[in-house]
Each structure stands twice: as structure tokens, then as C-alpha cells.
Amino acid sequence: MPDRPSASRRWLIAATWPAGIALTAWDYMWRSTPMHRSEKLEGPRSWQPVPAQQPEPLGEEIQNSETGYGPLFHRRYRTLIRDAPLGPEELMGVLQANLNRAAPTTFARFEKVHGNGSVMGVGDEYVVRMPGPWDGPVRVVAAGPGWFRFATLEGHLEAGQIEFRATAAEDGRMAFEIESWARSSGRVSNFLYHRLRFAKEVQAHMWISFLEGVASLSGGRMTGGVEISTRRIEEARDGR
Asked: How many structural domains is the chain composed of?
């Protein structure tokens, strides 16, 4: 399980929230990458389970979508990259070795707290450090040459999984996708994410910035902006 910060570190993190949130908001306001959004509300019959995962490394700290609160969100961020000298598997190998090569480290940084420092493997754990109360502990539950998947751990605002993958696309371009299946972890995060929508926009800003970083890391150019598709699945489950 990821190390918990000391009391002094928690105070230091809290002290940086106002500046960090202001920087994130400023960054978001001046974003120039085109975004193409679509959102659909669907009923429980349309629900598709999270893809199969390896059960061994999950552990008791995993927050799966079945234990979350509120509607299930199935979201995909996708961009196309052209003229990249790196292929999908080569790009993903560089990224798996150091996620901060693509992360927008001015407001979001991946801190590896368990596992080999230079190689990503199933069972490795990270904490995504962000300004405000957004730090997100995750564990690698599956990985391959061109992809990997995280599951959220206790303390994360979401309960579910998120997958990153690079694949060959049409016309010699490369597609990079970030796809998630998650609910809020509780009432407060559901209010911030689903009702107030503030956390949702912070999350979108982070992953769009990450895609921009991936395009830069590949040596190519993002083309067509970023597609953001969302399926919101409402389902009555034990009063949630």
C-alpha cells in the first residue's frame, strides 16, 4: 500500500493547494487544443463490465467500480499523432519507464511508491500528486507492450480502473487512448465530480495535457485535437 504522508508533509501539501489550484485554473483557461466532446446518458441494461483483470495483485485496498457511489462513468480520451519516429510499443516502453515524461508536472506528477524504479510491472503502485485534495493512489493491475491499466486504491476520489494504450491507426498515424470505467468513491467525491463538475474538469484538463505530452514524447504532432466521449450509466444499487 502506498506510504501515507507525515503530518508535516500533509500540512505542506495543503499549504500549496491555493497556488496549485490557481495555476491549474489558469492553465485550463488558456488551453488551445481543440476538444470534441460527446456525452450519453444510458440505463443499466447498457452497462458493460470493466475488462477482465489479473486477480492476484489486486489486494484489499482496491476500490473497484462495484463499491463506488453514484453513476458509472465510462470515459475515453483519444488523439491521433502523425509523423512520430517512435512506434506504439516503443513509445509505450519509454512512457512506462517514466510516466512523468508525458505528465503535466506543473500540476500533476506520478510518484512511484512501490516497484522497480525504471520498469513498470503488475503490482507496482503510484500516487498521482495534484494540487488540492486530488492525490490519487493507484496500482498496475495489467500491462503489455503497448498498454497498461491502473486500478484505484483506498483514498482515491474514484473507484474503478483506467487504461492507457497506443496503437497503429489509419494513414500511418498512431492513436493514443486513455479509457476509464469508474464511479465516485463516496458522497463527497460524487458531489465534486458529478454534481458540481469541478473535479470532472480538473480531470479532463489533466488527461488532455497528458495526451499533449505523449505527442511531444513521440516526436510527432497531435492532429485533430482530442475526442472526449462519456457514457453515464445510471443504475439503482442498494440506494446508491
From this structure: 1
